[in-house]
Amino acid sequence: MAFVAAPIFYLLAGFVVLGGVLVITRQNSAHSALALMGTLLAVAGLDVTLYAPLVAGVQIIVYAGGIVLLFLFAILAVNLEHSENDRRFNRMWPIGLAASCGLLASLLYVFTKSKALFPDRMMTLPGSSNVQDIAKMLYGETGRIAEYTLTFEITSLLLLVAIVGAVMMTKRRKIQQPIQ
Question: pTM above the 0.90 mark?
Answer without folding.
Answer: no
